[in-house]
Amino acid sequence: MFDYCLILAGGSGTRLWPASSSRLPKQFLPADGKTSFFSLALERALALVKKDGKVIVISGKSHICHLLADAAKLTAAEKKRLLVIGEPAAKNTAPAIACAVVYSLLNGGGNMLVLTSDHIIKPLKVFKADAALAAASAKAGNLAVFGIPPSRPETGYGYIETGISGVLKNQDGVFNVTAFHEKPDLTTAKNYIADGRFFWNSGMFAFSAGFMAEQFRALAPDVFLPFEKLKKPGAASFSVSKGIRVLNAWRGLDGAYKKAKTISFDYAIAEKCRNTVMIRANFDWIDIGNWEEYVKMRGKNSSTVFNCGGKACFVDSDIPVALAGVDDLIVVIRSGKDGKPASALITKKGETQKVREIVEQIKKAGKMELL
What we know:
By secondary structure, the chain is of the alpha/beta class. It is built from 12 helices and 18 strands.
């Protein structure tokens, strides 16, 4: 069990554009038809943090309304264990983790688990068992990362290269980390699979707050020092919304974010830390990284569809859609009836990775309101 569990709930999830956008990021979309990805992350976090511990959620200020709506479904006891911190600026994952580490140290410190907010992880029982290994590794003075056994040569994920197993006494499934690798090309990914020592990087970590503060000071002071100057927030720094505490007036936080370097935790710390071990995941892990994967998970159309002479199409639309004589399409439409800009995506199955290129074209065209 952990003293703190940090959920990273930033980002805009443009790979699922136009359903996911800067206004409603992927983590707040339904993962199973009703429950959002973020709600599932909350469930995991509450199951892994101690009864007197805290679940910290760090998200963009403009997204707090979404996470509060999801968290409103929690029990009163669960809400007391939850704290929301709004980021004044998107600075990638290292500043967010540094912020949480400093907050924890100002409140007694302890061990911390860092979770993503937009992945599918199950079953919970198995994840808890693997997290226990991570907690033991953190207690022993390590940065623990979760590595996913690869099922295919994937070019969309980073990889963890491992060495000797059994770093901790009598702890199977714990590996030395030799190196982190960026998203590879297909040939390199195939070589990784054939080698057998490479795992997908899940983006989840465990460590003690004191240990991580030392790592930040040594490896990324330009990220950590602005936050380390913060004082413990007083009662006036918090507000309460729907029974959930929101740290929305922490004196100096905006300035700390402004000064902190924009960089990922992987680049700033994980790739440089010498005391890093990997927990081999026994749980099922899915990163819904494109529309094709989302369709496989959802299965059914999420709107009214009239189909004539076509097959194997998926529609996610807030208005009725008619399909005539077309196969293997994914159609996503946001009509703008909610007052937001209208947009539509029509793609063949097997081509959904190109949504990234579409998003880049939108940016170059200066149509940021669509994102």
